[in-house]
């Protein structure tokens, strides 16, 4: 009977049906034999806005609206829901925020597996066992990134970063129009490759842009909703296939660089050389570089563009930043006849980190306004724990939406408005350490914060030193203010309608 059935499948359509039936059978088995996370009676109440089997799909399509509605329906402001078979608890409010970010138990590494940029399943807890956060690749990644950003190593690439930035801006010419979410994003990618990757790619523009294109394929193919599907079904989804192909292409680019260095004995003063000198496994080295690229580019590339757009439409803060740039250059230059850009190129790292307090406020406010998405943690301790007065069962995920703090009108006046003056001493909004979470707080602050601030300050300082500019649309018509944001975006995002900067070299 089986042979007769198989022999009848003579065309592609029949085989497609067979494959679909097979996947449906696997999915059905997944539903039947893979039980859902169970919640404690002392966990927050389950929300009603979810579907059988799949859970709260609105979490993927309208995340902030979903989060706000769930808070409104809860007496405590906290709530439970499902994403596929995974149990999730959402938190809100200052006390829950404190407990959440200061928890020594909630796992950051396992938390991000809920919607990873490169799809991979969360680990399954067998019999309530504990999953060690510091095991395997996570421990390796943390040790290496901390070494790259250590005091003795940080600043190694500052001269090259300044050279890269100057070179890119000189390519703009004396006047023109540019989309900062493309050109500045490309510069951020180059600076990040320079710091956490290798000079071979950072110095080769064609290879750099090829690598960036692969990176953007991986980023844009990302679809977190596949978390509700069993692993073997995910493997047949377009987003997974596209990311797998792009990941393989990126792997072979990096492998080619490694093989060349091993063959020729060539040495470079970069991150890849350090990893090679440590005798690290090739797979781990490439995994580290790919992971660090995603961590370094995904927000900084977007926030740099938005910061330039906000300055273009705020004369007061443009003047403050430009004055700061001129003062820093005058303080450190040895040649007063050099251009402002060339004077900036002599600044030591200490100046980049301490001489731009007004620019720091502008960046801080850009991150607050543009910040989207959720922080993700998971309880893999082997036992139930309490956060914000609510029980988080072993194996459950815990979320905190950044907008719960950054859109809170009791903390920030008119929170949708970009207004760096809110942080000045006479207002001191968000001065409580729990009220600003743009760089993370508690036990897991962003390890790359120092580098991210440095590269974004450097890009903006060189840009305003070199050009006068205004904000325009793609037709060149002036825009008085950047458009309002889509608060349901899952992360800092490019504008829905293209924004451009019309620039002219300063005299």
UniProtKB/TrEMBL annotation:
InterPro entries: CYP450_sterol_14alpha_dmase, Cyt_P450, Cyt_P450_E_grp-IV, Cyt_P450_sf. SUPFAM superfamilies: Cytochrome P450. Heme binds at residue 446. Its cofactor is heme. The keyword Iron-sulfur does not apply. Keywords: Heme, Iron, Membrane, Metal-binding, Transmembrane, Transmembrane helix. GO terms for molecular function: heme binding; iron ion binding; monooxygenase activity; oxidoreductase activity, acting on paired donors, with incorporation or reduction of molecular oxygen. It comes from the Eukaryota. The chain crosses the membrane at residues 12-33, 285-308. The keyword Plastid does not apply. Belongs to the cytochrome P450 family. PANTHER family: 24-HYDROXYCHOLESTEROL 7-ALPHA-HYDROXYLASE, CYTOCHROME P450 FAMILY 7. This is Cytochrome P450. It comes from Cadophora malorum.
């Amino acid at each position: 009977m089986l042979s007769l059935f198989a022999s009848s499948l003579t065309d592609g359509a029949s085989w497609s049906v067979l494959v679909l039936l097979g996947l449906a059978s696997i999915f059905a088995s997944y539903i039947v034999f893979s039980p859902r996370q169970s919640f404690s009676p002392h966990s927050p109440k389950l929300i009603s806005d979810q579907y059988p089997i799949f859970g709260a799909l609105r979490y993927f399509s309208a995340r902030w609206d979903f989060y706000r509605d769930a808070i409104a329906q809860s007496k405590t402001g906290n709530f439970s829901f499902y994403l596929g078979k995974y149990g999730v608890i959402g938190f809100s409010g200052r006390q829950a925020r404190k407990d959440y970010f200061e928890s020594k138990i909630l796992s950051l590494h396992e938390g991000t597996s809920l919607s990873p940029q490169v799809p991979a399943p969360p680990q399954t807890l067998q019999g309530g066992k504990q999953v060690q956060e510091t095991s395997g690749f996570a421990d390796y990644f943390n040790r290496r990134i901390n070494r790259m950003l250590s005091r003795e190593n940080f600043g190694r690439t500052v001269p090259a970063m300044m050279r890269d930035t100057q070179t890119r801006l000189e390519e703009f010419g004396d006047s023109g129009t540019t989309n900062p979410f493309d050109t500045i994003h490309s510069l951020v990618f180059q600076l990040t490759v320079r710091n956490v990757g290798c000079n071979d790619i950072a110095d080769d523009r064609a290879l750099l842009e090829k690598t960036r294109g692969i990176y953007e394929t991986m980023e844009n193919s990302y679809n977190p909703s596949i978390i509700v599907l069993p692993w073997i079904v995910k493997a047949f989804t377009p987003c997974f296939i596209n990311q797998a192909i792009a990941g393989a292409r990126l792997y072979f680019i990096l492998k080619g660089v490694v093989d060349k260095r091993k063959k020729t004995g060539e040495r470079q003063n970069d991150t890849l050389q350090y990893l090679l000198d440590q005798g690290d496994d090739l797979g781990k080295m490439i995994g580290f570089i790919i992971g660090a690229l995603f961590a370094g580019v995904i927000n900084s590339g977007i926030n740099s563009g938005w910061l330039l757009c906000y300055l273009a439409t705020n004369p007061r803060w443009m003047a403050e930043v430009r004055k700061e740039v001129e003062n820093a250059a005058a303080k450190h230059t040895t040649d007063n006849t050099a251009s402002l850009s060339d004077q900036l190129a002599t600044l030591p790292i200490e100046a980049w980190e301490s001489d731009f307090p007004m620019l720091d406020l502008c960046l801080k406010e850009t991150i607050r306004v543009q910040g989207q998405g959720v922080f993700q943690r998971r309880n893999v301790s082997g036992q139930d724990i309490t956060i914000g007065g609510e029980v988080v069962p072993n194996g459950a995920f815990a979320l905190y939406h950044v907008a719960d703090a950054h859109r809170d009108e009791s903390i920030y006046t008119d929170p949708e408005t970009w207004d760096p003056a809110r942080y000045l001493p006479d207002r001191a909004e968000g001065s409580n350490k729990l009220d600003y979470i743009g760089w993370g707080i508690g036990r897991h602050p962003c390890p790359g914060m120092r580098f991210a601030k440095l590269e974004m300050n450097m890009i903006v300082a060189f840009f305003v030193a070199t050009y006068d500019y205004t904000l325009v649309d793609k037709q060149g018509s002036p825009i008085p203010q950047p458009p309002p944001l889509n608060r349901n975006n899952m992360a800092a995002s490019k504008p829905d309608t293209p924004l451009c900067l019309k620039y002219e070299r300063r005299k």
